[in-house]
Amino acid sequence: MAQAIFIWIIISHFTMKLFRFLLLFSGFAFFLQTVQAQNQPVTGNIYDSQTKQALAGVSIKTSDNKLLTVSDKNGYFKIENTTSDQHYKFVLLGFKTQDVDYSKKEGVLNIQLDADESSLNEVRVTGFAGNRTKKETAGSVGMITSKDINRGSALSFQSALNSIPGVRMDQSTLSEARISIRGNGVRSSYGLRNIKVYLNDIPVTEADGTTRIEALDVNSIGRAEVIKGPASSIYGAGTGGVINFQLQRSPYQEQSLEASGLAGSYGLHRLAATYRNGGDKINSYVSYGWQEYDGYREHSNDMRRFLSGNFQLFPSNRRIITLLLNRTTQYSQIPGSLTADQVVANPLQANASNLDKQAGRYQTWTRVGLGQQYQINDQLSNSTSVFTYSYDLNHPLPYAYLRNYYQSYGGRTSFTYNPGFSELPTKFIVGAEFNEGLTKGTQYVNNKGTEGAITGNIDYRNTLYSLFYQSETQLGARTLLTLGLSYNSLKYDVSNYLVPAQSGIKDFKPQATPRIAISHNFAEELSLHASVSTGFSPPSSSEVKNVDGSINPVLQAEKAINYEINAKGNLLNSRLSYDLSLFKMDMKGELIGQSVQQGITIYNNAGKTTHNGAELALSWQALKSEDNLGIAVLRPFVALTYSAFKFRDYQILNAKNEVTASYNGNALTGISPWVISAGLDLETRFGLYGYLNYYYNDKMPLNDKNSDYNASYQVVNAKVGYKGRLGKAFEVNIYAGIDNLFNESYSSILSLNAVGYGGAQPAYFNPSPKRNGYAGLGVKYFF
Prior knowledge:
Layout: H1 2-39, E1 42-48, E2 59-62, E3 67-70, E4 76-79, E5 87-91, E6 98-101, E7 109-113, E8 124-125, E9 132-133, E10 141-145, H2 146-149, H3 158-161, E11 167-171, E12 177-181, E13 195-199, E14 202-203, E15 221-228, H4 232-235, E16 241-247, E17 255-264, E18 268-278, E19 282-293, E20 302-316, E21 319-333, H5 340-345, H6 352-356, E22 360-375, E23 380-397, E24 400-417, E25 426-447, E26 450-474, E27 479-496, E28 504-507, E29 511-523, E30 526-537, E31 558-571, E32 576-597, E33 600-620, E34 631-653, E35 659-662, E36 674-684, E37 688-697, E38 700-701, E39 709-710, E40 713-726, E41 730-739, E42 747-750, E43 765-767, E44 772-782
Parallel strand pairs: 1-7, 13-16
Antiparallel strand pairs: 1-4, 2-3, 2-5, 5-6, 8-9, 10-15, 11-12, 13-14, 15-16, 17-18, 17-44, 18-19, 19-20, 20-21, 21-22, 22-23, 23-24, 24-25, 25-26, 26-27, 27-28, 27-29, 29-30, 30-31, 31-32, 32-33, 33-34, 34-35, 34-36, 36-37, 37-40, 38-39, 40-41, 41-44, 42-43
Membrane topology: Multi-pass membrane protein
InterPro entries: Beta-barrel_TonB, Beta-barrel_TonB_sf, CarboxyPept-like_regulatory, Plug_dom, Plug_dom_sf, TonB-dep_rcpt-like
GO molecular function, one term: siderophore uptake transmembrane transporter activity
């Protein structure tokens, strides 16, 4: 027994010695590792999470706000003397502060900062390829973020886009939408016209200038920049402007899975699932959505299926690769327009012809895009994207049944060169865009929603290319001169298989579109800009036809010249931001559509118009989170638009090109003199939030004769909710809202210049929903 005790004591002694040795060795090893980590420099790159633009001037600080270093002009940073806690803060005006725990990281960091929606004048924009703040950019650039979209039900861009002065989106049912910028596009009979639309810098607009945005999942959009007025020097054809949508990207360091649901009036329901992973090597965003809506009116059901994938890879500190995948299915019924008497009798009814012919739009879109941003050296960089885009369309209409298949491909590239001039520093940008689309179209008699006899079999091969140049010269420390020029060409090749004599080629005369702009930053309170820009909008392939279906050889593109003065700044300790624009745009060769018989419209270059206006956006941060109150955000805002648009030289021509009427001096059809959009954002520190929107639209002429008007209307929307964490692993967002709170009767989208045949009233109106509500729940799990 004593021997056993002795042996146990010996073993315990050596065990204790061994334990102490291991403990000492572990402490020494940890010390060496810590010293090595402290001596190992931390390097990385900093980008705008949405635009992928490198961010210069970002302050990197310790957790106790000690400045370590600042990112260079390419967004690169290096921390030589690292701290023991390895917690860093990345700070830049216009962006949310990003906290990073480097102890959990290995290798090069690729920090991605999110824009601060409360400081939009300081957010970097890609408009005009300048990578400057909104306040520094010479030109009118509006911006919406996912937060703006989610101030409502997030089923439409309408409320968010209408918060930008000069921009108007009309929509009654989910199947029909129209966007206009400064009056351009309001006369479009379907889809978008005169406005270029991009998604992640990939064209959504087809080669002939038409755009359908129904393929975009509103919930997946992270940001949109709107250039108002001609932007042809960078983006090619388009007198109205440009909308560049960006799909959401995952917040930096977040890996999560979210499930969400929404239900509302008129049979509305939506389910969606989203995966996010914001890493240093790859940023992944994948979303699938399923949505159905019975509709406010008879025959207005809408069904959507969305699949969106947005991937951003960082293979090196000089290269970013992006991949876009998008597939959307839409089945929508079209109720059609009503006369004034029909609206009074029953605004829920469908147009009799649309109902009888089962008018609708049934299609599936597929879009794939691949892009690369490459910093070749300190002076030269390149951005290139290639894409392919297709859809199949099954489209019964009151007067025909269309089946189309569309396939397009193309690409866009630009080189940015900064030679480093010591005098008059200048940055040069040169690039090109190419887009070719083939439409294989077949038309039938519509027998109550089914195909009858074939009446047309036509292929359209449309080819567009644009070459562009831009330079930015620093005339002084605060003065910038911008010069731009593009050369654009468009060709339609039409093959009519039933009537070969109507085949042919419409080759538009190439257009050169210059732009000049100068800006001066007086102080934080005032940045002043002046610009002169030109643009053009060719007719679409469906608008180049004569009444007999042959190609109109004399039809040419609309042309515009825009003069603008723009003032932006921040007042009241940067809490009040403003953006004021005064502009004058003259258009000539305006395309005027004339209904010559039921179901047939022809177009002529028969008009000149003047677009004179003023736009003002105000946003006041009455309370912010740093005020250390229970309220994190209290922000009232307002957008005012004044439009004095007139026909200057406008004659009506019949099918024989004979003048039948003159409307010189009349107000431009479909334009309201005054539009007001206002709102109030309230967010608390403990998760409760509320949003209030107000929209006023002045009365406007419904026809060129100015004999019929749409009455003014005002709409109020409200939303409340709670968003907060449940432990470390879950986040919940529960909300409810009411649209058209005061039950206003109005029509947002209108059929302008409608004609009543046989003595009937014109069917102008598409009644919008009366008071309706919705509620939703989102649950996010963090890995």
